[in-house]
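Thread amino acids onto this structure.
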């Protein structure tokens, strides 16, 4: 199987000592492409650096809602300069997170809107983060409906109504290792069968959200483990893993213009 880890954070400090070993393990597991997703100016720059120096690695640039208080027009301009590099194929991770509130709501909304505008200006697909926004995320998306061309709701953890709204909007849905966790993934396993074959992606969100069975051996997630999520997704959807791998590969390439 040829797999695409459509969302990870290999720029994270937990990979600084063995990044090439991690990338080689991914290739041995059939993971031939990886999207490293920026969450700050610094991490976006690191993501681009990794993508420019290693084959099969792509990058996005963006400011995560947790870090929205660091957003400024200068930061946005710097990210736009990074975004025109050939290694960059998406904008994000951006969105709203009203769960932990690491940044004030007003800062999150301003950062989110300005990043949508930047991505649309540069014709880049968007990588979205949403948690507990009580409908505000969709309200903002709908305000830009005629401008947003493509995007993915990464690490989907919403309800049936939210999923339907995202699908109707034409967004892709990113599925993480949460799917493999017995109790935590129960609701997600019920919903993934609703996702059309041409709108579904698999991702690790490494170093976070380690899937089973790997979570029993290590805390740090890595791109190689996207295989476990793919296998569980195929089981739940009643599909052949090889066929689902091809579908998710094609979807990621189409989303990211690869």
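Threaded sequence (258 positions):
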């Amino acid at each position: 199987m040829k797999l695409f880890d459509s969302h990870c954070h290999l720029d994270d400090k937990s990979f600084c000592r063995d990044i090439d070993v991690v990338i080689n393990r991914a290739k041995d597991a059939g993971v031939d492409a990886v999207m490293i997703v920026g969450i700050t100016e610094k991490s976006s720059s690191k993501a681009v650096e990794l993508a420019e120096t290693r084959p099969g690695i792509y990058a996005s640039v963006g400011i995560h809602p947790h870090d929205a208080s660091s957003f400024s027009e200068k930061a946005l301009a710097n990210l736009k300069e990074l975004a025109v590099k050939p290694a960059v194929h998406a904008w994000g991770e951006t969105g709203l997170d009203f769960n932990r509130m690491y940044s004030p709501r007003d800062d999150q909304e301003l950062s989110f809107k300005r990043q949508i505008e930047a991505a649309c200006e540069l014709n880049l697909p968007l990588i979205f983060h949403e948690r507990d926004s009580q409908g505000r995320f969709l309200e903002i998306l709908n305000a830009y409906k005629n401008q947003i061309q493509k995007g993915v709701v990464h690490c989907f953890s919403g309800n049936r109504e939210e999923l339907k709204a995202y699908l109707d909007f034409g967004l892709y849905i990113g599925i993480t290792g949460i799917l493999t966790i017995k109790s935590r993934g129960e609701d997600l396993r019920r919903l993934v069968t609703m996702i059309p074959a041409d709108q579904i992606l698999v991702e690790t969100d490494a170093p976070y959200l380690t899937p089973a069975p790997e979570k029993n051996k290590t805390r740090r997630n890595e791109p190689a483990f996207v295989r476990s999520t793919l296998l569980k997704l195929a089981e739940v959807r009643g599909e052949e893993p090889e066929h689902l791998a091809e579908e998710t590969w094609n979807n990621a390439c189409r989303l990211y213009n690869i």
